[in-house]
Amino acid sequence: MKFTEGYWLRKESVQASFASQAFVVEDIPQGLRVICPERPILNRGGALDVPIITVEFTACGINDIQVRAYHYEAYDNKEPRFPLNITKVEYSTSITDKEATLTCGALTLRIDRDTAAYSFEANGKILTSCGFRNLGYIRANKQPSTMRAEAGYMVDLWEPYMVNELSLKPGETVYGFGEQFTAFVKNGQVVDMWNEDGGTASEVAYKNVPFYMTSEGYGVFVDSSSPVSFEVASEKVEYVSFSVPGEELRYHFFYGQDLKEVLCNYTTLTGKPALPPAWSFGLWLSTSFTTVYDEKTTSSFIDGMAERNIPLRVFHFDCYWMKALHWCDFEWDGETFSNVPEMLKKYHEEKGLKICCWINPYIAQGNDTFREAWEKGYLVMRADGRGVRQTDHWNPGMAVVDFTNPDACKWYQSKLQQLLDAGIDCFKTDFGERIPIDVKYHNGADPVLMHNYYTYLYNKCVFDFLKEKKGEGEAILFARSATACCQQFPVHWGGDCSASYPSMAETLRAGLSFAMTGFGFWSHDISGFEQTAPPDIYKRWCQFGLLSTHSRLHGSTSYRVPWNFDEESCDVVRFFTEKKCEWMPYIYSMAVTSHETGIPVMRPMELEFFGESGMKYLDMQYMIGDSILVAPIFNEDSTAEYYLPEGTWTHILSNETRQGGKWYTDSFDYFSLPLFVRSNSIIPVHTGVKVPDYDYRQDTTFRIYSLADGSTAECFVTDVKGNNKVSCSASRKGSVITIDFSENLNGACIELINISSISGAKGARIGARDGSVSLAVDSTHIEIEL
Fold first, then answer.
1. What digits encode the pLDDT tens for the residues 463-510?
2. Percentage with pLDDT > 70 across the chain
3. What element of type H or E holds 260?
């Protein structure tokens, strides 16, 4: 939000008070409290008629300092609060006449008492600072007031805002803010936190998260469910500005040695991603949205995939499993599906599938489910007191479930239980963005501040239910909307994209921004939701989709089965689905890492190669975990332009090697793309499998890539639940490679990629495979002489 008209002038409708002096500094638990008048107080008279901003700096975790700035202390804005994991950590403070400091881990906050300016510092350098007119209280559209006995007597009426600005260095780049479809580097943008259903081709976003990171190695989380407005090097090009309505502003400042450590600290505060079940990483197929289908149609899709030997793991029923005009009454359309339990049992037992169905948090009028919710008070009410808040947008007379009411949550979950009883395994939690603000909630929360927060309650209600009923590690959603802390409820998908290469590219950009906000798992509608892609785009998007953590074929007005495009599409989908299944020991280890650390599986180049030249603006390629680089192809010419960071890189399909630190342009058929393994990597795989979920410790092959002299590579594998880790490390000294396992693994093999022969081996039996030495593991300690 802009409060100025250029550098010199503020808007005429704005009156501002800025922190100008640290007049009082005192110790408080875990930190400091600073009293900042809007002008320096130099004598007793100066302490009269002066607004103050109180700022509290507290240590809330390792390298995590919270800033709480407020004007009126007793103001209550009825704000729903994000549940945060505040931890007591060691800290130290110092207060002198000139400055005050708070140190927490490697992070130091320094306050200049003369000016109230403060800076965040680490390793002897300033990361960012807040100085002259950077921390303020704004009175917008203030009504006239008088001291006479007339209308307006002592009126204090205005729209209050708190604003804070943090400096940017030359060349510093800003990332994050949730799933944003605009340019990956956010410098020069205005990013407003307001969830809405706007597709993928505009600045409107389904998933706004008030958190950003910069290339200087720090992150900022504005702890507010309000519509936070960020001016990212826009209103003031030297600063990131963030403002909130009301009398109080809270934010956390995180420092890390790199951006992965920043994300780890951020998700320690806001919650780590849950670990999705291994089966969810397989291929999903949907009925699509407005297509016509019944049991015969869905069975033909499932059988068609099997007939073509395309491994399918999840089948999804979109909206029309219910009757038209009845969304979401949780009742199957009996005219279309006559015996649902029998159908789903067949899909489970005979076809080996998991089943998902579509839901949303809205209920159309005209059915028993609506009337029950209405009578029990489980729907969001009108602000004027005239009953339930309804709309004809989306479904007729539609109302919104009030998840601030605990009884409404239990009631909603009881409807989900009926679906589980019929054979449903998981839910696509669609919508959650179109939340009106002229309403009244059960808990009295401010409806404007509930707008973004609503999706947290909605998805938490469904996820917690699945976790309770299915067990830890078996709960999964397919959610469209999100806000802060929602990374705890995976998976999320990218919304309504279109069948074009530009839309495919904007989808990836959004996914990379989403990853920079701590979301570990992400998907998108392969080949686009709107329109129907030509075979070329379908096949290229299938590559990209099956190289994302979660992979779903879903569309709007047409089916997405590959034979509807061309026969080669079937081959492409089969090829990359099988490869994903084979690579699951590696992929799932990265999923476990995300669950434990908060570092996403799909990683922007700047996240994985922090500080390396050339990484900041790369938004058309990414890493899967720490070792595999993916550069999807975004044109009908079959060419890819991509950058390989420093080191030796090996194409995972052809074993061709390339030297990094340079750009490449290559052409690829539909069965390949830039897909390279980093040097000094171990990639555990299981060849020949057709499902994503199996014990990754059994019959696993550990492929070692370009292990340099003096280097060590490490990996681990788990069982299908992500437990019982077994680690593998390989180190090289001269011509000797030493490999150690933490325990014995049945059927384990080692492949030395692009090494065609060795002199000998201890602890393993030597074989051969396509120009790479293969060894059957006999011991937990192996020595190889090259």
1. 999 999 999 999 999 999 999 999 999 999 999 999 999 999 999 999
2. 100
3. helix 259-270
User: What is the DSSP pairing of strand 736-741 with strand 781-785?
Assistant: antiparallel
Q: Is 430 designated active site?
A: yes
Q: Which of 64, 165, 430, 506 is catalytic?
A: 430
Q: Please name which of 721, 650, 652 lies closest in space to residue 685, comparing C-alpha atoms.
A: 652
Block residue for tokens 């780590």: 272
Coil/strand/helix, residue 457: helix
Q: Which amino acid, residue 491?
A: V
Q: What is the pLDDT of residue 770?
A: 74
Strands 657-659 and 174-179, bridge-based pairing: unpaired
Strands 64-70 and 248-255 turn out to be antiparallel
Q: How much is the mean pLDDT over the chain?
A: 97
| Dist CA 773 CA 751 (whole Å) | 6
Q: What is the DSSP string of 407-430?
A: HHHHHHHHHHHHHHHHT--EEEE-
Take residue 560 and report the two structure tokens written for it.
């997405």
Pairing, β 283-286 against β 189-192: unpaired
Q: Decide if 551 contacts 526 (C-beta within 8 A).
A: yes
Beta bridge partners, 478, equal: none
CB proximity list for 176: less than 8 A, separation 6 or greater = 186, 209, 211, 212, 213, 219, 513, 516, 517
Q: Among residues 433, 606, 693, 751, which one is catalytic?
A: 433
Collect all residues with Cβ–Cβ distance below 8 Å to 41 and sequence separation of at least 6: 21, 23, 47, 50
Residues 593, 625: contact at Cβ < 8 Å? yes
Nearest Cα neighbor of 302 from 349, 338, 270 is 349
| 231, HSE (Cβ side, Cα atoms, 13 Å) | 20
DSSP conformation class of 526: T
Q: At CA 406, angle to CA 401 and CA 411, rounded to 5?
A: 60
Start-end of H helices in 425-532: 447-470, 501-515
Residue 768 confidence (pLDDT): 72
Catalytic residue, chosen from 231, 248, 496, 530, is 496
Q: Both tokens of residue 696? A: 């990754």
49 is catalytic: no
611: left (phi over 0), alpha (psi -120 to 50) or beta: left
**For residue 89, how many other CB atoms are within 10 A of its CB?**
14
Distance of CA 78 to the CA centre of its chain: 27
Which amino acid appears at position 254 of this protein? F
Q: What are the structure tokens assigned to 540, written together?
A: 């290229």
**Residues 113-157: tens digit of each pLDDT:** 999 999 999 999 999 999 999 999 999 999 999 999 999 899 989
Asked whether residue 420 carries a pLDDT value surpassing 80, the answer given is yes
* Secondary structure (3-state) at 450: helix
